[in-house]
Amino acid sequence: MRRGVVFTLDALVAVVIAVIALTILMQMLSLKTSSWSKEISLYNSAQDFLTSRDKNDTLENIFTSTDMNSTMSSLNISMTSQIPASMVARMNITTCYYNQTALAFNCSSTITAQNSTTNVKSVLRRVFTDPTNNRYGIAVMEVWYR
Amino acid sequence: MKRGFMLTAITVVLFMVLINTAFQYSQSSSAYSKRISEMIVSEKVSYTFDDITEDVTRIVGFNITQRASDLIIADSLPASINVTKNLALYENFTRNYYLTPEIEAKFLDKNNQPINLSALSSNISISPFNLTYGYTNFSKNDILIKIPSSQLGAIQYTWYNLTVTSGNFSNFSSIAWNSSPAPCSMNCMNLYLVDNFAINQFNSTFNNTYSGYLNMSFVDQNCSLEIRVGNPYILNLTNHGCSISSQIQLTLNTSNIQPHFPEKLSIRDINYNTSKTDNIDVIVRRMLK
After folding, report:
1. Domain coverage including residue A89
2. Cβ neighbours of B43 in A, within 8 Å
3. Residue A137 lies in a domain
4. Measured between alpha carbons, how far is A45 from A144 in angstroms, rounded to an integer?
């Protein structure tokens, strides 16, 4: 009888340990899953923003910008208003023109101000061009949660 | 003693059920994660595909608008840029600056053989009619529009609006078809030719089965153009030194239209082996009626 009680208690302790282990495991897995769903939201926000800026010629107009600081600042403002309030983004624009003499691309880069503070972020690239003037550019947008 | 064994057995069974549940949950969760990551990768692949396709349309200079079943193709002759060279530069740029190491891009010809983007065809095909619009080459000294005769009925009306922005015509009244077209009531085509100042205008409506060429003379001998309609081309416009702005409107019997190049673009993520291979679509601006 006493031995049965010991077995039962032993088994109950084992079940308690198993339940704790299971809870920790599920917690870890659900964290992993939510990280993926967060990345999808980040990716979609970046995709929407970059695609719309390319289609409305904002990116192409960067080639003819005489004041890059003000261009980047207005891009920053539109990023802030278009992406969800829970997200932060920054953009790195590289513009290149083809040097006919050197037969190579000459490039320069400009970046908006924000800095990433989290590991969960999405990075998206968009290529744009001004074929009339042999100019090509890449916009790299990074989005992360506040 | 017997009760003790019973309880132990039940506990062991419960314990095994718990382990099994954890295992199942872990399996479905990793499958979900895999599906999500594949979804992101396939979105990235499609996005890269669309990004390149859009730029190719921009470089080639096609300006196509669709309003319901009306397709409007705006163009200007000759080409203002060296399209072939620009396509080569664009390909060079995307390979060296745009594509990340895990993304592979290939341009394929009709037989799925790899080609350079500069080998892109200078004509597009409009599905589902197999109607082709294009030029002999990207210098754009002509416009050739062709449709299989069995599909002619799919075009309800065609407008060719051509503005010659350089060159000096003689009196437009001296412009005439080599054989007068019969009056048209169905499946008609309308050719409207005008000079830059809208002083000289030629307007003619004919059936889409009509075949003929336009006799016209120019005061300015440095510029001339030839216009032919009828088998095999529904428009064969050859430009000799003029600057021409064209707007061609086709009213089709469906709004389900997609212009594309005969060549394909293949984008592949090497790590996930996820790819998209499809014809290079011409981006169409779709307007509400």
Report:
1. 35-145
2. 43, 47
3. yes
4. 10
